[in-house]
Amino acid sequence: xxxxxxxxxxxTILVFMSTPGPSHLLMIxxxxxxxxxxxxxxxxxxxxxxxxxxxxxxxxxxTVLMASEFGFTIxxxxxxxxxxxxxxxxxxxxxxxxxxxxxxxxxxxRTLWAKGFITSAANPKAIVFFAALFPQFIDHSLPVVAQxxxxxxxxxxxxxxxxxxxxxxxxxxxKRISHSGRAWVGxxxxx
Length: 191
Fold this sequence. Notes:
By secondary structure, this protein is mostly helical. It has helices at 3-16, 22-34, 36-58, 61-67, 69-97, 109-121, 124-137, 144-176, 179-185. It has one domain. It starts with a helix and ends in a 6-residue tail after the last helix.
């Protein structure tokens, strides 16, 4: 892969990341309720799932999965079900907290990691993205594994920076919301 190809790959990722996805929205939520430093466990969970997805896509296993309409449909609906369940939990929590400002319990780091991992792993768009994108930037006349590692590492760095930026911004905003505003959006106090 040439440096020009790598820069084109970076530009493609930046365009893809220009609108927040489920993992970015989760990072915002966790950072607002648990603080930025604790939300980094969520980011690590997300990036861990990305490593698995990139490995599958990079070595062609995602292509096999995509060829099986039934298998892809099952993964897609598991992801939809999980994301819907998370949304319902957030809505229920906001109604039960409305008008009350109380200390939000800190969630265990393992749980925050799992939320990030599951949200990313259950997102079928990520598998399709890696399976469709990687082959466009891999030169089969050069060592493929090295190129997959470079593409994967580049993605992880950029996604990690986006997650950190979303998380830090959400934490900064949450610290500045008044108590009445925090009660309205269902947030307790944060660190």
